[in-house]
Design a protein that fits this description.
81 residues; 4 helices; 0% strand
Amino acid sequence: MVQLEEVEDRDLTREQPGPYEEDDDEANYTDTDSSLSSAGEDFPPSLPSETPLDRIYALKDIIPPSTRRSIATTSSNIFSA
């Protein structure tokens, strides 16, 4: 039979340091919304205009020629029927 024994963790019972009395939450606060909007840059950055056809055409560099040929043959057979 297994006997369980509780072991006290000294780190959990030790007092933890807290914020100092002279620290003010307002002094440490930074308004991130105003700093982002005053940066003068577009957010999100504007993307170059690219059509879906341009993206498909760019896949030509990624897909090997044998696979492109197989896709072209299969699609040609499907659409000619």
